[in-house]
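REQUEST ID: PR-0412
SUBMITTED BY: lab tech R.K.
PRIORITY: routine
TASK: structure prediction, single protein chain
INPUT:
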Amino acid sequence: MLEVRSLTARYGAVPAVRGADLELAPGELVALVGANSAGKTTLLRSIMGLHGDRVGRIVVDGTDVSHSTAVGAARAGVAIVPQGRRLFHSLSVEEHFGLASGRRRGGPISVADVLEFFPGLARRRSVRAQALSGGEQQMLAIARAVLVGPKYVLMDEPTEGLAPFVVESVTRLIEHLPSLGIGVLVSDHGDGDLAARATRMYVMDRGAVAPHVAAGASAALVLDIQEGAVQ
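STATUS: complete
OUTPUT:
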């Protein structure tokens, strides 16, 4: 279980996340829904240890990583697909696969498995990341995260701005991961397929996280919750 308790994260004197509580179990697809600037990115980065100005408790399968860097979170079994993808632009697709496989901690998904969902990457294995399309870069960022063999994957708006056929491929892979026992926490605006298909949903607004709502909640319900339940 990935557990977050009373997590607060700041940028100077300004709190971006305020006392957030959430849980992610192995084999779950959980949505974190909210508008732009709600605090979703900072929350995911804080869980991963990429945002230093944070207080609260983060526990991964009994291991306290509250004060860990991203290296500590990764060793505990957490991976992230960040906004901006953060690829090594001078490295090829194949070299990204090699880096991820070299850090592999076991896990049920292989390069061959990933390429079944992202066959376009199979044809681009020798191409540098900087020469890939935006959709191909996103597929590579997701592939890199899952190939290290994590127990939990945090995905920051993984389908935003992608062409429909890429969204379909990305969504299929994300939905497949829980069947392998991997917990997935995906941030979303609330009007996409991933939020509708999630096991559970948390709603975030102005840095606060509301108690989870039923899976498949409509965008209208999410907006109602943002207006009224999160103060």
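NOTES: The chain has a mean pLDDT of 90.
REVIEWED BY: pending
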